[in-house]
Amino acid sequence: MTLPMPAASDTIGLKIVTCVPRRSARIPTSSSMKGNVLRYRRSPTPSIAAFRNTIPFWAVDGLKAIDGLGRTMQDSGVRVSGDSMLGLKVHLVVTGGIAAVETVRLARELRRHGAQIIVTMTSEAKKIITPLAVGWATDGAVNSEWSSDLPGLSVPDVVLVAPATRNTLSKISRGAMDDPAMMAIAAASGAQKPVVLVPSMHDDLFDDPVTSDLLEDMERLGHHLLISPSDEGRRKQPPPDVIVRRTSSIVNGAREGTSSVAVIYGATEAKIDPVRVITNASSGRTGVVLSDHLERMGHRIIRVAGATEYPGPYPDIVARTPMEMIEAVDMIMEKQIPDVWIVAAAVLDYQPIAASAQKISSGLGGISIDLEPAPRLLHHIKEASPSSRVLSFKLETGVTPDELIARSRSHLEASRCDAVVANLMEHLHGAGPRGYLVTPEDEVTLHGPADLCRVVESMISRWSS
Predict the structure, then answer these.
(1) Residues spanned by CATH 3.40.50.1950 within the chain?
(2) Of 305, 463, 294, 295, which Cα lies nearest the Cα of 387?
(3) How confident is the model over 286-312, as pLDDT tens digits?
(4) Which residue among 134, 243, 348, 429 is least packed, with the fewest CB closer than 10 Å?
């Protein structure tokens, strides 16, 4: 699929196709999340910002940068990608690991989501990346020496230590405060503000029992750890978008009104023969974008993905057939009952009664395939999880918006859902509104993906309050 290009600054169209491994549905094991430790699993495809159509955007005009309103942007400006960290003060602590070279990308990603950055560098970090580069990326002053105003005592909403070297972990464990960076961490901890640590080191150091003890100390102190898988013999720093998504989720997760949300998205398929399937058209984009935004806003997300063509975080469960999606629902229910189910998947209404055991010859003049109703996912969710709220999606073609909304209200009654996002196929590519959020009481026009995300998140927060 060709990615949308809402801003003139996007001068290259990227064609990215996600191939989800075909395997049985599964639920994450407890080893993937333990206490405050998130063990980051690398996605099979790169992640991209969820809100590419958000304004104001910055476009390149010759050697000048111009925003969507025609104003010139300063050289260090960034294009807004989301608002999950809008108004949040992030104290970025950069220590002396080689991953400090990623600081520029990380700082700018934080700013794209609205963060206000205070930055402190250790003396060892300045040997790897210059304060000049970091100051440009953060659009602010860089603290590295003791000073009379002690900026480290200005309590932020979160302290993000990236990279967090083993030496840094050791200092935190001992309570050392021998430089402004350590003071910033201690002050935030004392004020009961979250501290997010991103360890980065060689596997030999990470696997040392002393490091294991230090990581346990960080958990005991209530700090959050973002740990990447081993890659090329190293525990590398995760990509900036992963760090920012998890950091915003941690900070926003402390607010009232957050929920556990299971998001089911992507297409389903059923076999015709060993090499052919019947399927519905769906890229999975809406589910990826929506789950990304909800996670950033602090909701606890479980992702169930069918066949998708849109890059995003690796799903917790892969389910490519209607029955696999029902099995995924049961597996989730065994672990916890979500507060909210979002069913954005294109689930087959009909499937072949029996698939051919052998490939059907292409030389036949024609074939007929007998279909039967596929298992009803929404019905199963309401039966298995009657106390949960359910948001479903409905796609129609060739009807007026009024008829679409009327059919959606009938769908609400028949499916016993709490809300439905109604779409017209003709409007999905910019010919009209992105859709309508229909509830028993009202309907809201949705003008784009960012609008959809904000309206749905607001509704979920109201449901849980």
Answers:
(1) 82-252
(2) 463
(3) 999 999 999 999 999 999 999 998 877
(4) 429
Q: Is the pTM of this model over 0.90?
A: no
H or E element, residue 455: helix 449-464
Residue in this structure with the two tokens 């950069």, named with its chain if needed: 94
Average pLDDT estimate for 82-95: 95
What is the architecture, at CATH level 2, of domain 82-252? 3-Layer(aba) Sandwich (3.40)
Rounded CA separation 187/157 (Å)? 12
Pick the CATH number of 260-464 from 3.40.50.10300, 3.40.50.300, 3.10.560.10, 3.40.50.1110: 3.40.50.10300
Per the listing, tokens 């292409």 go with: 362
Please say if the pLDDT value at position 78 is more than 70.
yes
Give the pLDDT of residue 431: 65
Maximal C-alpha separation, the chain: 86
Residue 427 buriedness (CB in 10 A; 0-12 / 13-18 / 19+): middle
Give me 363's structure tokens. 């030389």
Comparing 30 with 304, the larger pLDDT belongs to 304
Query: Token match 């689930």: residue?
Result: 347
Beta bridge partners of 202: 234
How large is the average pLDDT for residues 434-449? 91
In terms of C-beta distances under 8 Å and separation of at least 24 residues, what long-range contacts does 144-150 make, across chains too? 144/120, 144/180, 145/180, 146/179, 146/180, 147/180, 150/180, 150/183
What is the rounded average pLDDT of the residues 353-360? Answer: 93
Label residues 35-69 b or e (16+ Cβ within 10 Å = b). Answer: ebbbebeeeebebbbbbbbbeebbbeeeeebbbbe
CA–CA distance, 90 with 115 (Å, rounded to integer): 6
> Are 380 and 345 in contact, with CB atoms under 8 Å apart?
no
Closest CA to 438 of 463, 465, 397, 402: 402
- Give pLDDT tens digits for 90-144: 999 999 999 999 999 999 999 999 999 999 999 999 999 999 999 999 998 899 8
Q: What is the DSSP letter of 280?
A: -
Which token pair is 2? 């060709």
Return the closest-CA partner of residue 219 out of 199, 202, 234: 199
